[in-house]
Design goal:
Order of helices and strands: EEEEHH
Number of strands: 4
Structural class: alpha+beta
Strand content: 25-35%
Helix content: 10-25%
Length: 72
């Protein structure tokens, strides 16, 4: 059996990803595919913006107000 040049035998080493809140600048570093489960995101002008749990909770009415009427 040979090892990969990266040093990991199973090839499952995941690089941590850093997410930054677009509103307050709080950052989170995670090993998963996406942001922390308590964070939200929106797509505005084709760009994805992530929001931390605190900002999401404080601005929930504003977030709901931007949803398409199909959601209601």
């Amino acid at each position: 059996m040979t090892s990969s040049p990266g040093g990991s035998d199973d090839g499952s080493a995941t690089q941590p990803r850093r997410f930054v809140c677009a509103r307050c600048g709080t950052s989170a570093q995670v090993l998963t595919e996406g942001p922390p489960l308590t964070w939200t995101y929106s797509v505005e002008d084709g760009a994805r913006h992530h929001y931390c749990e605190t900002c999401s909770r404080e601005n929930l009415r504003s977030i709901e107000g931007r949803l398409d009427s199909d959601w209601w």
